[in-house]
Amino acid sequence: MKIVVTHPDPQEALHWQQSLERHLPSSAIEIDASASAVRPDARIAVGWKPPADFFARHPALEVFFCAGAGVDHLLQHPSLSDSIRVVRLEDAGMGPLMADYCLQALLQISARLPDYRIQQQRARWAPLEPLTRAAMPVGIIGLGVLGLQVARQLQQAGFTVRGYTRSPRSIDGIEVLHGADQWLRFLGQSQALILIAPRTPETENLMDARALAALPHGAWLINVARGALVVDADLVNALDAGHLSGALLDVFREEPLPASHPFWHHPRIQVTPHVSAPTQVEVSAEQVAANIDRLMRGEPLQGLVDRQRGY
Ligand code: OXD
């Protein structure tokens, strides 16, 4: 069985190749390192952000295993044919990392650390009231495999957590709102709003001026999903107007975030470079290899993406 690994970072490609080789010793695992390589017989690919001509050079591909949780870059690939099944990583060690990232962010906000950073720049010594957890109900948009782990960890730490999902869902111990009529109510109750939903045509530009205005005064926005969920200029306006207290952004419309982007220097925005839940290659390769075994046995794949739905 020939498997092709594609990744924009050559070190990551090598790491994937070596890890997959350990789990699939009888497969030939090749890195797609040359733009002229054509593999007419490769049926399986594993990777992240394949180059524009990748699918033309691999015409027999049946399954693409994404080396990440979000598959929007693949579904928007101009030459991904309808016949290729796309499979995403499910948790694969990312859930606890993302939960820690969000918890740390909320703890910093409650201790007013972002405010002290601004005060420090002005050499200002002014103790502030900490924000209690009761004063900071958290709303999470997207309660998939990762979102649910974040929700549970925040609950365990004493935060009140509500979720908003696309379709009605009942989750033990979490109030879940859904649908257009509950959207504004959900936002209005979210003193800290965390975005963990995939990027789909439905979620693109979700947090526009109207949605940001529906958040309570002084709310915080944390985005660990995709930059395209937020309208950048509307976020800056909401912060400048004092309606929002701050934003912690890990994902951006363009990554790396261009040096000229206003987010970099905004005093109320903290930028991190898409690190809330980096792919854990060892665990992920084990998950992908188990799925390839299932494929060989003709069993259903886990993490198969519904291409209509977008995740
Ligand atoms: C992602 C990932 O989808 O890093 O963003 O896995």
- Annotated CATH topology of the largest domain: Rossmann fold
CATH superfamily of the largest domain: NAD(P)-binding Rossmann-like Domain
Strand content: 15-25%
- Spatial gap, N to C terminus: 27 Å
Kindly state the percentage of residues in helix. Answer: 25-40%
The CATH architecture of the largest domain would be: 3-Layer(aba) Sandwich
Helix-strand makeup class: alpha/beta
CATH class of the largest domain: Alpha Beta
**Strand order within the widest beta sheet:** 8-7-6-9-10-11-12
Count of the separate structural domains = 2
Give the SSE map:
Elements: E1 2-6, H1 10-23, E2 28-31, E3 44-47, H2 54-57, E4 63-66, H3 72-75, E5 85-87, H4 94-110, H5 113-121, E6 138-141, H6 145-156, E7 161-165, E8 175-178, H7 180-188, E9 192-195, H8 209-214, E10 219-223, H9 232-240, E11 244-249, E12 269-271, H10 281-297
Parallel strand pairs: 1-2, 1-3, 3-4, 4-5, 6-7, 6-9, 7-8, 9-10, 10-11, 11-12
Helix pairs in contact: 1-10, 4-6
Bound molecules: oxalic acid (OXD).
Describe what you observe in this structure:
Helix 1 packs across helix 10 (281-297). The protein folds into two domains: 2-92 and 279-296, NAD(P)-binding Rossmann-like Domain (Rossmann fold), CATH 3.40.50; 94-271, NAD(P)-binding Rossmann-like Domain (Rossmann fold, 3-Layer(aba) Sandwich), CATH 3.40.50.720. It has a seven-stranded parallel beta sheet with strand order 8-7-6-9-10-11-12, sandwiched between helices. 32% of the residues lie in helices and 16% in strands. The model has no long low-confidence stretch (mean pLDDT 97). By secondary structure, it is an alpha/beta fold. The chain contains ten helices and twelve strands. Strand 10, helix 9 and strand 11 (244-249) form a beta-alpha-beta unit. The structure holds oxalic acid. Oxalic acid (OXD) binds at residues 68-70, 279.
